[in-house]
Amino acid sequence: MTAPRLLIGHVMHRRLRPAVHAFVYPVFFVQLPLADLAAASGPLFAVDRGKLLSFHQKDHGPRDGSPLLPWMQNLLRERGLPDDGEIILQCFPRVLGYVFNPVSFWFCHNRAGELIAVLAEVNNTFGGHHGYLLHHPDAAPLLDGEVLQASKVFHVSPFCEVEGGYRFRFDLQRHCPRMRIDYDDAQGELLLTAISGKPQAWSTRALAAALLRMPMLTLGVMARIHWQALRLWLKGVPFHGRKTDFPLQEPSK
What we know:
13 strands; DUF1365 domain-containing protein; DUF1365; alpha+beta; disordered C terminus; 10-stranded antiparallel sheet
């Protein structure tokens, strides 16, 4: 059983047109094994209850507070995928009770420990959420660094249309694991995004150090989203407004 992990790293985002716009922010995030969430509990971190740092199951999946492992296993079975391996959820934790996760990743393995699917769970600032389940139709393992594609069907930013598709790439065997999401619209490559983090052993000391370094982590995520939106608007990037949200959909091959 994999132990919980803390990762300290950065989020990078770069827009290529009609105006070049880029930023890099420091972040920390957690990776939690769904089969043993209790292993993460400690003096600073709690599961499904309040503490300086916490994780609440109602923030993910069906959003009703029910156990996440059976929900994800059922989703895998519906796609004809193995559900007998370890599932690890990567996300921002709640800080002082607040969290906003632009994207969370569920890493799903088979019994042999091979990665066979990744659920990219996307949230927008309008309260909507959507999951892109990435896998091979024959349930073959996903190779490290392999490019996986999915059509865009969910509204995220009012500065982008709901069209085109994503290219996901997971470089997990690096010293500093990196998750990439690049977006192409009808005109081609538009957005480049990367999330990277150096793993730290799970301990109260490591969590305290991360919190002291970034005490406004989750409030800062939301504040920075709106600040960057204002900067895009000032640069004259077209504003498209809010679009209809969609339920979980099978990704393209």
